[in-house]
Design goal:
Layout: E1 6-10, H1 15-26, E2 30-35, E3 45-48, H2 54-68, E4 73-76, H3 91-119, E5 122-127, H4 130-134, H5 140-160, E6 165-172, H6 178-181, H7 185-194, H8 203-213, E7 225-228
Parallel strand pairs: 1-2, 1-4, 2-3, 4-5, 5-6, 6-7
Helix pairs in contact: 1-8, 2-3, 3-5
Length: 236
């Protein structure tokens, strides 16, 4: 990006969110991360926020706007999993994942859109997953929440596209994070067999797609789903 922007990454205290925040900082942007615990990378402003609570999201934005200025770029990355086979999945296992991953993105995007409409500029990037469109046994809740982000981005594109605002989805596959590192070696090898690239991605590989989408070069891309999955889902 040529212009310095104010960027918010939700769930920026670990994993992919942390790497996204780091990459925006490396490119010279003002970066805030929201987190329920922990901190974002060095050089970022960490703000406590719970995406399941609209008042908490509003307060976080107010703090960020006062410190760094209006938010130009929002990356909705905060997410949880509660994996369970359908027959054993409780109502709460389902609704709590939807409330964080999908409704949480809605709350963040809705609050961000106020400033973006005023500025007639905005970049919204929603972090989905290959399983959003590929599906995954034991992840009915997570998969539904992540595919829902596609409909969200495309509807936002139709509503706000004429105001200089884009909304896109990045769908990572298997990424080298603490979560995948905990998988047994045999399981990891098994997964890699199903990925045409034959390896997991680094978090930075995902982060650079996000920063590109947020930049000036991607101004005519909106409503797209960009897979970063080594060919696993083929964009589905």
């Amino acid at each position: 990006m040529t212009t310095t922007r104010t960027v918010l990454v939700t769930g920026g205290n670990r994993g992919i969110g942390f790497a996204i925040a780091e990459e925006f900082i490396a490119q010279g942007h003002r970066v805030a991360v929201t987190s329920r615990s922990g901190h974002g990378p060095e050089g970022s402003l960490t703000v406590r926020a719970d995406v399941t609570d609209a008042a908490s999201v509003d307060a976080a934005f107010t703090e960020i706007e006062a410190t760094l200025g209006p938010v130009d770029v929002v990356v909705a990355n905060a997410g949880i999993t509660k994996d369970m086979l359908l027959m054993r999945m409780s109502e709460d296992d389902f609704t709590s994942v939807i409330d964080t991953n999908l409704s949480g993105a809605f709350r963040v995007v809705k609050r961000a859109s106020k400033g973006m409409l005023k500025a007639r500029f905005g970049r919204i990037v929603l972090i989905s997953s290959v399983v959003g469109l590929y599906g995954s046994a034991g992840q009915v809740n997570y998969s539904a929440s992540k595919s829902g982000l596609v409909g969200l981005a495309r509807s936002v594109t139709r509503e706000l596209g004429s105001r200089g605002i884009t909304a896109n989805v990045v769908a990572p596959g298997f990424i080298e994070t603490d979560m995948t590192a905990e998988l047994p070696a045999a399981t990891q090898a098994d997964y890699k067999k199903s990925i045409p690239a034959g390896r997991f991605a680094t978090p930075t590989e995902v982060a650079r797609v996000v920063t590109w989408l947020a930049g000036d070069d991607a101004g005519y891309i909106s409503g797209a789903v960009i897979p970063v999955d080594g060919g696993l889902g083929m964009g589905h």
